[in-house]
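Q: Convert this sequence to structure tokens.
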Amino acid sequence: MADVTVEIAGRRHVLGCEDGEEEHLRALAREIDAEAVALAARMASPEEARLMLMVALVMADRAVEARTGAEEAAALREEVAGLRAELAPLQAERAVMADALNAVPEREAAMNARLTALAERIEALTQALASA
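A:
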């Protein structure tokens, strides 16, 4: 276990931490110190306990906002995944419909050819009956 000396709001504190975590603890202490300095500048002669309470409240508020934002982001990701799942079959159906629409001119031409041939046969039969 390692000892780390940090300074927060002008006071030195010796804290223990796991070996290898010293720099992380120093970084956390720097964030707390920066918040304490900023709050102390706005408070009229703050006492240490009240100042540390305010720092803790401000930082807890940020943590709650971050957690809420993360939860909202997760909910949005879930909603997007659901919408993508709904979209996939619609895209497949659209492709089938597009293929069917693309086939319409060919089918129409084939039907016209058959109708023309049928009309010609009817005309030929009508003439054959008229001459008989």
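Residues 20 and 60 are 26 Å apart (CA to CA).
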